[in-house]
Amino acid sequence: MADPKGFMTTPRQDWPRRPVEERVRDWDEVYVPGALLPIVSKQADRCMDCGIPFCHEACPLGNLIPEWNDLVSREDWRTAADRLHATNNFPEFTGRLCPAPCEAGCVLAINQPAVTIKNVECAIADRAWELGFAPPRPPDRLSGRTVAVIGSGPAGLAAAQQLTRAGHTVAVFERDDRIGGLMRYGIPEFKMEKVQLERRIEQMRAEGTKFRTSTAVGRDIGAEELRTRYDAVVIATGATAWRELDVPGRELAGIQQAMEYLPLANRVCEGDIETSPMSAAGKHVVIVGGGDTGADCLGTAVRQGAASVTQLDIYGRPGAERDEDAEPWPTYPKIYRLSAAHEEARELRTAPAADADARLFAASTLRFTGDAEGRVRSLHLVEVDSNRRPLPGTGRAVPADLVLLALGFSGPDQEDGLIGQLGLELEPRGTIARDTGFATNVPGVFAAGDAARGQSLIVWAIAEGRAVAAAVDRHLTGSSRLPSPISPYDRPMAV
User: Fold this and answer.
1) What Gene3D superfamilies does this protein map onto (predicted)?
2) Is-contact 382 390, C-beta < 8 A?
């Protein structure tokens, strides 16, 4: 450790965000460009090198956090990049999109603000690209074995890169017209500019990975045909079957799923269309769901010029500090967090009905009402207790011209026919069943990521991709030197 007293002398300082009034007028990332590098070395000094790094256990990738913190404090960017990439294929993704369970597990977080691990990770990744420390790594020789990866989200891309580097010939099949899965069309540009995604794809192409876009396996190409053409198949299609809201008035026009709304905004940023046909401009928007997808809808609606935006969260407002009895360190606590989108909503006062940052906590939707043309005009809600039971006398209505449902996902989409054509067994909750080696009931077919685990974090998806790659490599060759950071049954730390 470079500074044994760094955690005592240096306060936590996060990557500063651009002023709200400036950033809501564009789709660029919310952070001040270039403002992280001058502060990150001193922030890395705060790492205690505690001897028992719970941050490792909190991160499913097993990132070597104290090691690269020490290297960043010394500004040894090349070695830091090597250590970071040893466990994480895409640190520039996780450095922007992961909620950082590693910071919740930081030993310093017992009684102080945690080390800014996520910021340090992002700085290393960006410097690696800037200084040329992330070159393609094609294999020395080919194995003669072929693998099809279905789905190009973080799990699919991680599996494909690992297997390509092991010498197998890998083709990634993606049903959308561009590679990236939800990172492409589900994550707004202001959270991660797509240049981050594009340069990884180009790196993978240079290594030998093949990409097949606009190809839905099960519809555009038969699943059994694909299975006979390749020595192994990895299903990493994600959990894209969205949850519904079964209340009166759901049939009204103007009530959309979040993943119908967000891709159109991203297509505007890609230059595919000039304006979104679901634009929030001038509308009263209500978002049902208090998670990250709801926050993405919030930031998007603000940038589109909504008249108002309100977000409903069925859970009560969490406290500012960890509840040591319910969620003791080092578990990931449910505390009040202010995302960039919520900060924007608070300063711009987008939700007159809300107390603060556009969120109405402990609020449950009862029904929708509309106008004579069948378009939604109001959402009727009621406050609930901690058991989600309605509280008498708390019902009210909020104006709603556009309602966005961000209620999460239940499992993989089955409409393309992939699951049925292969005869894959499913778990009771709708995810793909697999054994301890990531193998499904169909020989040679493996499953990874949210399609099998269920809706989870990007770090778990990448860890699953790396682990399934090792399983496939072992299946094809009899052994594997690829890392396998998790098993299919590992779960985040919990009480």
Assistant:
1) Alpha-helical ferredoxin, FAD/NAD(P)-binding domain
2) yes
Spell out the per-residue pLDDT of the chain, length 495, in tens. 668 899 999 999 999 999 999 999 999 999 999 999 999 999 999 998 888 899 988 999 999 999 999 999 999 999 999 999 999 999 999 999 999 999 999 999 999 999 999 999 999 999 999 999 999 999 999 999 999 999 999 999 999 999 999 999 999 999 999 999 999 999 999 999 999 999 999 999 999 999 999 999 999 999 999 999 999 999 999 999 999 999 999 999 999 999 999 999 999 999 999 999 999 999 999 999 999 999 999 999 999 999 999 999 999 999 999 999 999 999 999 999 999 999 999 999 998 877 779 999 999 999 999 999 999 999 999 999 999 999 999 999 999 999 999 999 999 999 999 999 999 999 999 999 999 999 999 999 999 999 999 999 999 999 999 999 999 999 999 999 999 999 999 999 887
- DSSP, res 130: H
Q: What residues are paired with 455 via a beta bridge?
A: none
**How many other CB atoms sit within 10 Å of the CB of residue 257?**
17
Longest dimension (CA), the chain: 71
Between CA 437 and CA 231 the distance in angstroms is 17
Q: Tokens representing 210?
A: 């093949």
Under 8 Å between Cβ of 184 and 146: no
Going by C-alpha positions, the residue among 91, 246, 150, 17 that lies closest to residue 468 is: 150
Query: What tokens appear for 363 in the block?
Result: 């609020």
Strands 396-399 and 376-383: antiparallel
CB atoms within 10 A of CB 17: 16
On whether the CB atoms of residues 464 and 432 are closer than 8 A, the answer is no
The secondary structure of 434-473 as a DSSP string is: --TTSB-SSTTEEE-THHHH-S--HHHHHHHHHHHHHHHH
**How far apart are alpha carbons 103 and 242 in whole angstroms?**
29
Distances from the Cα of 154 to the Cα of 196, 265, 460, angstroms: 13, 21, 9
Instruction: Tell me the pairing of strands 210-212 and 169-173.
Output: parallel
Query: Which domains are seen in the chain, by residue range?
Result: 6-131 (1.10.1060.10), 146-240+410-477 (3.50.50.60), 245-407 (3.50.50.60)
How many CB atoms are located within 10 Å of the residue 194 CB?
18
| CA-wise closest residue to 85 among 103, 67, 107 | 67
State how beta strands 146-150 and 169-173 pair.
Answer: parallel
For residue 427, the cross-strand partners are none
**Distance in Å from the first CA to the final CA of the chain:** 31
Provide the phi-psi class of 308: left if phi over 0, else alpha when psi is between -120 and 50, else beta: beta
DSSP conformational letter for 19: P
